[in-house]
């Protein structure tokens, strides 16, 4: 039985149909080219660059070492480049970038140098520190921005938790305003280039401008590179009359304005830690008032 189905050769397209086929073919051809190109571009252009993480509280010496590793340079390369780096720093810094190597995650781009990495960190610090809120906060506490960074660096080093930062900042201001030495072990450890929780009586006799046991006022420079939390605490210290503090255990820092109460807190610390052979918490406290017993000076934190 035959049918009247036309042969393929008789199948025709209208002018509009031919145009649609041509357009569809062009789109398909273009897609066939574009997809491989897009795939190639995705593989190369979107590759994540190497990064360098600078943590809050790191000293400049630690950051120099981290830059050397990130740039695959011999140890000491970044430190030795400081003399010719011509870094843009506050006049008070005297060319020392300590305190202005802002903690953040930085890209390590092709062609990066120690100078470019350091300046990137300093530029970031400038953006954070030189804004109106920071300047206003510093003025409110009768200090300039460089002094605020210096205090923030001590807060960063001394605080066991973020919650303690505002109170420690207040202790620092209270001592400065009372004409008392800071007597913070963190400044002493910075002078001795060490990280430890232990401080001996002989350590407190160190001849250094960073020995806040023997010298009044702030150390000459920051002692580390503080983060935003420490800076915020410095500009907005927690209200209080505290002069002493000691961390008894993680999460348990005791603040007081009374010296005898502080002595009891120190005794509790010693009782908890005597099995570990720790005689005192880190950091010697400020001199006892004339009415207090002339016992060895207790620690603060």
Shape, principal axes of CA atoms: globular
Average pLDDT, rounded to a whole number, is 80
Find the count of extended strands (DSSP E, 2+ residues).
Answer: 4
Helix coverage percent: 40-55%
- What percentage of amino acids are in beta strands? 5-15%
Radius of gyration, in Å, reads 31 Å
Largest sheet: 2 strands, antiparallel
Tell me the structural class.
mainly alpha
End-to-end Cα distance, whole Å, is: 105 Å
Brief synopsis:
The chain has 301 residues and is mainly α. The chain has 10 helices and 4 strands; from the N terminus they run αβααβααααααββα.
Give your account of this protein's structure.
This protein is 43% helix and 6% strand. It is built from ten helices and four strands. The strands form two sheets. A two-stranded antiparallel sheet has the order 1-2. It has a two-stranded antiparallel ribbon with strand order 3-4. Helix 6 (145-158) packs across helix 9 (228-235). The longest helix has 31 residues, at 15-45. The chain is globular.
Write the layout of secondary structure elements.
Elements: H1 15-45, E1 50-53, H2 60-70, H3 77-80, E2 105-108, H4 114-129, H5 132-140, H6 145-158, H7 165-178, H8 185-191, H9 228-235, E3 244-249, E4 252-256, H10 259-273
Antiparallel strand pairs: 1-2, 3-4
């Amino acid at each position: 039985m035959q049918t009247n189905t036309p042969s393929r050769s008789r199948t025709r397209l209208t002018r509009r149909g031919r145009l649609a086929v041509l357009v569809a073919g062009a789109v398909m051809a273009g897609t066939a080219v574009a997809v491989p190109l897009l795939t190639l571009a995705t593989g190369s252009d979107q590759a994540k660059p190497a990064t360098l993480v600078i943590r809050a509280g790191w000293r400049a010496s630690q950051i120099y070492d981290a830059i050397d590793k990130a740039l695959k340079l011999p140890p000491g390369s970044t430190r030795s480049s400081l003399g010719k780096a011509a870094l843009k720093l506050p006049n008070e810094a005297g060319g020392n970038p300590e305190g202005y190597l802002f903690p953040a995650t930085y890209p390590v781009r092709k062609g990066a140098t120690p100078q470019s990495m350091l300046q990137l960190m300093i530029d970031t610090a400038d953006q954070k520190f030189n804004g109106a809120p920071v300047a206003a906060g510093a003025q409110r506490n009768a200090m300039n921005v460089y002094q605020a960074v210096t205090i923030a660096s001590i807060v960063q080093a001394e605080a066991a938790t973020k919650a303690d930062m505002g109170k420690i900042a207040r202790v620092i201001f209270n001592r400065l305003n009372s004409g008392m030495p800071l007597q913070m072990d963190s400044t002493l450890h910075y002078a001795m280039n060490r990280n430890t929780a232990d401080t001996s009586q002989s350590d407190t006799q160190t001849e250094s401008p960073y020995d806040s046991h023997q010298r009044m006022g702030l150390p000459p420079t920051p002692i580390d590179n503080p983060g935003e939390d420490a800076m915020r605490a410095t500009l907005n210290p927690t209200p209080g009359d505290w002069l002493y503090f000691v961390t008894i255990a993680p999460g348990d820092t005791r603040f007081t304005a009374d010296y005898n109460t502080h002595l009891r807190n120190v005794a509790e610390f010693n009782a908890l830690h005597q099995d570990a052979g720790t005689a005192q918490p880190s950091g010697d406290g400020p001199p006892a008032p004339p009415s207090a017993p002339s016992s060895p000076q207790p620690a603060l934190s």
